[in-house]
Input
Amino acid sequence: MRVLVTGGAGFIGSHVVEALRTRGHEPVVYDVRTDPGADVRDAAAVARALAGVDAVCHQAAMVGLGNGVADAPEYVSRNDLGTAVLLAAMAQAGVGRLVLAGSMVVYGEGRYTCPRHGVVRPGPRAVADLDAGRFEPRCPVCGAELS
Output
């Protein structure tokens, strides 16, 4: 099966691409990180990317940066408008199979408690930690493990 993976160069998307390859599928990476023209808000570019595709795994998204409403216009444009453009292009191309990603942006980060500082809101994970396979956040104040 040929699968378009939007956000295929990102953290989750790259793992999806690898899993698809391992299982004998043909992933097609569509990501602005590797190709600035691969924007899910660009209907013509999305239509071209859908040619010959059997399914879509939609991982492309902008994570809210916690700046209150300052990043809302760009966030909504990339996530909501981008998804709408993709869905319309899929309908036009007759691609009916979709896996749509959900993330902490949708369902929340969760509640974390530090033994010294009580309930805390962890910051973004460091790239070095993610590369080393350390996915659990640490206390933003003291660095302790959280529960």
Notes: The longest helix spans residues 72-93.
